[in-house]
Amino acid sequence: MKFLPRLVVAASLSGAITLNAQARIERTIEKSFTVQPGGTLHVETLGGEIRVSASNDPVVKVTAREKIRADSDAEADEVLKKLTLTMEQNGDDVTAIAKYESMMPGFHWGSWPPVNVDFIVTVPAKYAADLHTSGGGITVGDLNGKVLARTSGGSVKLGKIGADVDARTSGGNVTLDEAAGSVQLHSSGGNIAVGRASGPAELSTSGGGIKIDSVANAIHASTSGGSVRATIAGPLKDDCVLSTSGGSVKVTVDKSAAFRLDASTSGGNVDAAGLTIMIENGSPGRSRLAGAVNGGGPLLKLRSSGGGIVVKSL
Fold first, then answer.
1. What distance in Å separates the CA atoms of residue 246 and residue 248, rounded to the nearest whole number?
2. Per-residue model confidence as pLDDT tens digits over 106-134
């Protein structure tokens, strides 16, 4: 079922705000759906932000906040005629989509579409999310379900996620408090920060640093524009690779962890003081150090072109 803005009674107007030589009129539409935990929220919007939070109620509440570039209510009504706003339920899944018709002659990307739609959604705690926006940030609270997030124009902020996480942005930072499953985070223009990851983690950015406070599985982290900081909790369960072209690498491992170290830098030295290592190549305090730590095991490969490498134990 589709809900067109002009047919919805529950609409509110805000004061006009100057925006691109036009006023901005805001209207709000709300819709609630009764669901069972375990469903998936699908959201897609152009030019707007997405915010998802969890509750203990078996209800998905969707709020669509329309920000319209118009000088009057009548002009706003005309703009909204070309917006398709869909909020519907299929079983325990809920979909919210805002689509506008193709760009008209005389407009440019900075002013198109003439209406941006933010989605603010509350879902049961045991729920998954599939979120897409081309012009805003994505914020997700604590969810016990898989999260897929895509944005071309903002940051991604994720809370404690009880399943796999896959988040990508072309224009901002990515932060994740915690994930119980696998983690894939990618940014073309910002930093990446993770609190704790229980599953394997793959992190990459072209424009910032990477920091992960605790990973309990394999980690692959690479950046072209900053430093890499990581703490590997417990034994190495698989090969780990951390690399940067624009900063240093610092890794903390458990003092009893057994692995093969392969560290090399063209921008500094390798410091592995405190490790019990059987050296195979290079030497401590030089640009290259390779050997078996505590008898050897999975590979810990570290590379830097712009700074030093430090490996220390706890």
1. 7
2. 544 456 789 999 999 999 999 999 999 98
Hunting for tokens 């706890």 — which residue is that? 314
How far is the first Cα of the chain from the last one, in angstroms, to the nearest whole number? 57
Q: Chain centroid to CA 30: how far?
A: 26
Distance of CA 22 to the CA centre of its chain: 32
- Asked if 274 contacts 310 with a C-beta cutoff of 8 angstroms, the reply is no
Tokens of 206: 């072209």
Distance CA 99, CA 246 (A): 40
Answer whether 0.85 is exceeded by the pTM: yes
Please state the rounded mean pLDDT for residues 230-249: 95
Q: Which amino acid is at 282?
A: G
Report how far apart, in Å, the C-alpha atoms of 211 and of each of 4, 46, 202 are: 44, 30, 12
Average pLDDT along the chain: 89
Beta pairing, strands 24-34 & 59-69 = antiparallel
| CB-based contacts of 8-16 (< 8 A; 24+ apart in sequence) | 13/73, 16/71
SS3 52: strand
Where does residue 75 fall: left (phi above 0), alpha (psi -120 to 50 degrees), or beta otherwise?
A: alpha
Q: What are phi and psi of 22, to 5 degrees?
A: -130, 160
Report how far residue 261's alpha carbon sits from residue 264's, in angstroms, rounded to the nearest whole number. 10
Residue 140 burial by Cβ neighbours in a 10 Å radius (0-12, 13-18, 19+): buried
CA 130 – CA 121 distance, rounded (Å): 12
* DSSP 8-state class, residue 287: S
CA distances for 276 relative to 229, 279, 281, 293, angstroms: 21, 9, 15, 6
Which residues, including other chains, have CB under 8 Å from residue 198's CB and lie 6 or more apart?
179, 180, 181, 216, 217
